[in-house]
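sorry for the late reply, my laptop died twice this morning and i had to redo everyting from scratch. anyway the thing you sent over, i finally got around to it. pasting the sequence first so we're on the same page, its 98 residues, then the predicted structure underneath. double check i copied it right bc i was rushing
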Amino acid sequence: MLRRLPETGEATLNVSVDGTPVRARAGDSVAAALLAAGIEHVRTTPVSGAPRAPYCMMGVCFDCLVTIDGVGNRQACMIAVANGMAIRTQRGKRELGR
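ok and here's the structure:
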């Protein structure tokens, strides 16, 4: 469904998603990098466990919440990807103090 435009020569960065190495383009948001890597959903809802994926890509819907470098409930669409970033998908509710 999603495909990248032809390569434009941007630098590539190395990040990890749930411990798996993923390559991303410099300047991408975390959400764009996850979608480009073929990751279909980034969190599940606390009550029903329904999968959620980036939707609005502008910080309004909160469907793209992930844990970035140990900090939970970060909006993936609002944060630029950085080299070495550790991204974790969120399953259910986030525990307090983590």
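Residues 9 and 67 are 29 Å apart (CA to CA).
thats about all i looked at so far, will dig more tmrw
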